[in-house]
Amino acid sequence: MQYSTMFLALLGAATTLAAPMDHRLEDIQCRCLSFSTDAKPTVCTYMGAHKLDWHTATSLASDYDLKINFASQSTITKVLSINRPLPSSVLQTISDGEVMPVDSKDLLQKENKIVCGFGDEVKHMGDLNRDLEPECHFVGYVGAAFMLLIAFYVLAEYVWARFFSQGSIKLDGDEKALMADYDASLDAEENAAP
Prior knowledge:
- Keywords: Membrane, Signal, Transmembrane, Transmembrane helix.
- It is a single chain.
- By secondary structure, the protein is α+β, with helices and mostly antiparallel strands.
- Among the domains are: 107 residues, no CATH class; 28 residues.
- The chain has 7 helices and 4 strands; from the N terminus they run αββαβααβααα.
- A 4-stranded mixed β-sheet has the order 2-1-4-3.
- A hairpin with a 2-residue loop joins β1 and β2.
- The radius of gyration is 38 Å and the shape is elongated.
């Protein structure tokens, strides 16, 4: 009898977990992200890493003149599946489509956008966007090349001094040190002779 009750409990839990999840407008989380032509999206500096709800995000977007985009096409599908009537601001944002990286042909190098999604979709925005070219940090490459050059020079100098250089003559200590004494008497005789 215990097996049947356990089976029924597991069946009930599986049914509950397998039930479709209804998304609500209140579940949308937004963040301000800075998109640039040469780096992954980063969190805006003036708004920090705060998660925003939809109403706060729309008011901040109007205050700072920012675009609002959804994180992906699946987010747009989830928003459209909400059973309640959606505000016109949501429908306007859906018509703009999903967020796209900054076009490298634009003169504008950096653009701030508010990106909205469900769960941690916005948090992992930089990881999911694989359309961007890899970051190139020229200063880091130059610094690393300089450090490798110095390490190679030190290693080459050690090898040269250890194996290839002709060292100085090393005395054991039994040899007599050569000394030159200036004989003042000879110098005086040469001066008196003329």
